[in-house]
Structure prediction request, 182 residues.
Amino acid sequence: MFKNETHNEIGNICRAFDSMIISIREYIGTIWEKALKENELREKEIEMRALYTDAHLKALQDQIQPHFLFNTLNTGVQLAMMEGADKTCYFLEQVADFLRYNIQHPGSDATINEELGMLDNYIYIMKVRFGERYEFVKEIDESALNAQMPNTILQPLVENCIKHGLKDVTQNGRITICVKDK
Prediction:
């Protein structure tokens, strides 16, 4: 910087030159800031694309796993049918229906009737697993069957009854599912 304070032509040129240097430095600073922001945005875009790709891959994997599971269960059903194992065939069908319901309805609402249908599958599976250890009683108000509720609420309640409430019960356990309209 010249810092010439005289008021002649040389002083005017020096002040203009000093002013130009300051403007150029500010402009360069602005360009650097913009370049840094652009680089940050590019890095975020690359990161977002990687996350998107990972999410897409996970979604495909999540589709393959249930598909494999259902194909395997269907194969088990066919084997049971060919061997004349009707109880095994029915059991595998109930397991497949139960899993399909839970996979196809994540985070959605269902009618109480749909939830009770899924719960019937679960209860059947538990009866096969535990025999006559528990009795399942349903007291259902028919007028409430079409009411909406978050899906997969009833099954965890029954599961918790078995796991925690009746864990030490070896016979005569009773689980009552009661649904009433207001």
Observations:
- Helices lie at 9-82, 86-104, 112-130, 154-165.
